[in-house]
Amino acid sequence: MNAAAAKSSANPPASPPLPVWRDPAAWAKAADIFAVLIALSLPWSTSLVGICSFIWLAAVVPTLDFRLFLQSLKRPINALPIALFMLALAGTLWSDASWGARLYAVGPVAKLLVLPFLFHHFERSARGMWVFMAFLASCALLMVMSWLVLIFPGFTLKGDDAYRGIFVKNYIDQSQEFALCAVVLAYPVVTLLRQGKTWQALLLVAVAVSFVANMAFVIVSRTALVTMPVMLAVFALMHLKVRTCAMLLAAAIVLGALAWLASPQLRATTERFTREYRAYKELNQVTSIGLRLEYWEKSLRFFAEAPVLGHGTGSTIGLFEAAATGPATLVQSQVIGNPHNQTLNIAVQWGSVGVVVLYAMWLVHLLLFRGEGLAAWIGLMVVLQNFFTSLFNSHLFDFHEGWMYVLGVGVTGGMALRAQASARAGPSAMRSKS
Length: 434
Known about the structure:
The chain has helices at about 5-10, 25-40, 45-60, 65-70, 75-90, 100-110, 115-125, 130-150, 170-185, 185-195, 200-215, 220-240, 240-260, 265-285, 290-305, 315-325, 340-365, 375-390, 400-434. The chain is mainly α.
């Protein structure tokens, strides 16, 4: 063998690069980009979220390691969302509703099927934090638009919306976004302060305070008023010393009192609680609180009638129609397909079995974020917010809040799984070297 042949055999020619449409790395990057686009569009548009989600799934499929993906479906974090969807699908068989109503009720549960793909993809991708940076930036822009609408009401795209400061969507969705961003920012603020990076921490404090100020002086949902203090308390208990917690609690009480005195909007929001409750109890008027209490009371009765498997998928609105009494002006005559409580929404349709699956899913997703780090903190807050706000709404099944849960838990869950795998690999590598 001559020298040229020997050199050729020692250094075989490199294989030609794969075309883009066959390159898994290119598809993975495209999937990351479309995940970012989902986060950017979530505060603004439902249509864009749907379109970007479909394209994201199409981009993820070519990157899947199908053997590992199918194995991952056995994890409880994946199996329980799938089980909830399968229960909704099976519930169509014993429902008395029309088939149109049954299939329509399956739709809100179907978004949970995206979770296994998100877990699998972001367990391998290192770009998960891009998604949350995009969501924060998008919410910050929406907050600026909210202040502009407050100053120039004609600037809104919601001309028929009686609430001020709403550029798109509604005040419940906006409050959900702003509350989550404000609470999540507490973790990097404390981290930066501990590292001596004061100016970066003050910048994030300014952003968080802007979100809170918007909710105090422009518009806020009562659900956010109730749940945000709980989320902040969880942060204090997990990441601050007892003395610091006590000082912050005293400061929060003082600042809360000052905000309540300074903000007519905040006072009006809190005073509506008692005013609407009295109107419901004493005059039987249709009010927001009165409707919720009526929906919950009737839903408990429906659940008692079929406690194991419920009345079937899509049965809720028919049950409320049958239970409606009195003239249309009374609260007892109101009909709805959503009892404004996630537990009752599931209990009416799929009974105790559905409730067990729901709470098991929340629990395993919560336990996924026991570790340290920003990703674990974001995932923890997403799960806690969805759980507590679902006491007053069916937020897991609502489009906007449901996608906040799926995207937030899916991306941070994949990042948490990636961190856990790295932590396991570290000690194993050290033992093998020794």
